Amino acid sequence: MIGKVTSSKGLDPRDMPPGTLVIIYVRNSPGDNQTIESQESALVNLCHERGWKIVRIFRDRWESGKTTNREGFEYLAYVTRQKPRIAQMLIIWDFSRFGRNQDTQMFYSAEMRLNGWLIYSYRDDVPSGSMGRIFEALIAWKNEQFLVDLRLNTIRGLAFIAERGCLPVGLVCKGYRETIISLGSVARDGSERMGRRPEVDPDVAPLVVRAFEMKALGAPQNAIAKATGLYSSKSGSWNHFFSNRAYVGEYEFHGEIFTNVYPALISRELFKTVQEKIMPKATILRARKLHPRRRGSSFFLASQSVCKYCNHPMEGKSVHGHRYYVCSLHNEKSEHCPDSELLPADDAEHEILRVLLEHIVQKSYLNDLLQWTNSFLNSGLDEISLQLRALEDEFVTAQKRARKMAVAFGSMDQPSKYAEQTLRDAEALANQLESQIFDLHQQISKNRIELSPAQIEPLSTNFVAMINHGEYFDLREVIEQLCSRIVISSNEIVVEVHFPVGAI
Description:
Blueprint: E1 21-27, H1 36-50, E2 53-60, H2 71-80, E3 89-92, H3 102-114, E4 118-121, H4 131-163, E5 176-186, E6 192-200, H5 205-216, H6 221-228, H7 238-242, E7 251-253, E8 256-258, H8 268-278, H9 281-289, H10 292-295, E9 305-307, E10 314-319, E11 322-327, H11 328-332, E12 343-344, H12 345-360, H13 363-378, H14 382-410, H15 417-446, H16 453-469, H17 472-482, E13 483-488, E14 493-497
Parallel strand pairs: 1-2, 1-3, 3-4, 9-13
Antiparallel strand pairs: 5-6, 7-8, 10-11, 11-12, 13-14
Helix pairs in contact: 3-4, 5-6, 5-8, 14-15
């Protein structure tokens, strides 16, 4: 059965009389059973049978429906927006020609109809009338699901290749060469399925190892390039090369690690040393802050404290039995942060705990901090509040209208289909507005911490007990829950606090 799609005015494209002006859009893409020529031939024959006059044919050859670079379709969209229209109806092979994304398909079909165009889908079995839009939405979902299923099937097939020790995609890494082997299965066309297995290249592999060894020793890139010839000294491939875990025998594909694809060329210790050389400084600092040794340290300020002079994390350090805090950058090499000094840990910790006990964990301060936090969270809700008030007014109007229609509908002896549909539409609009209002209320509630003074009191009591208890892991938890950052120097300590949401 040939499908038909009605316009917004209720016209059925199949019933358009001879002489109707039409335009045609055809596209094929890799994997289509129909060529662009077969599509065009079928649509032209249809026009001849109906006596419709073809004004223009737009074509896109071998372009994926997912891509945005479709010159034929883009020009088609442009033409359908022009006034006066060059034709009355657009004929397509099926709705996937618009694209396999639901939003894209529904957007373009709605836009064209609003501009007065009829749309005729040759293959999609869409009924006429109001049910046609529901069918179109299902077709749009089906077209998008096709891409999802295709992607999952492709990934599953490629993972099958990797499980058998072969490379599913891409070129082999430097230091390896590929050998073609049988995967022991049959492809769709009946041929034997083959795979590319990486093997160590005895000529290039030693150069790879040499490059990693030189990098670990701090050799400059131009020296490594000159000694190995793997890439030019200015190539942008070096960073990927040195961070490629295939060289320790770990090949990652779609979030899964395969250890049977690449034979290891270097040790994990050498690879780790090289990563520290190429890792961005900010990443190193984050890694240091979360390092188990740093978090488990009895220096409970270390997780949240930074140096005043360079903003690097502070570290705990013991010197001749005495505890100190020191800038991590200064601790590596003193010339990196010359103004930093060793700060007695007992003095710094005592001062922080005093401020916490006397001020921050007191009920009055926590209550003020809560009010300030809620004020800050609500400062960005003005637009949402305006939208909410507008929706509530619209909902009241829609609800009244639906009630009036229900009363009128009940008084009819034989209600018409139009009256039934009008009542359903009015009730659906009221329900939709009510749902939107609920969502906005939820969004507003999430931007506020609901906590009464009675709930703040046990929170304060608990913090006081944890501080007085004095175990370093309790103290570290208090610091992390209350302090965003502690800026430390030899002459001052600045504590930046936030409301302890995690402790609620």
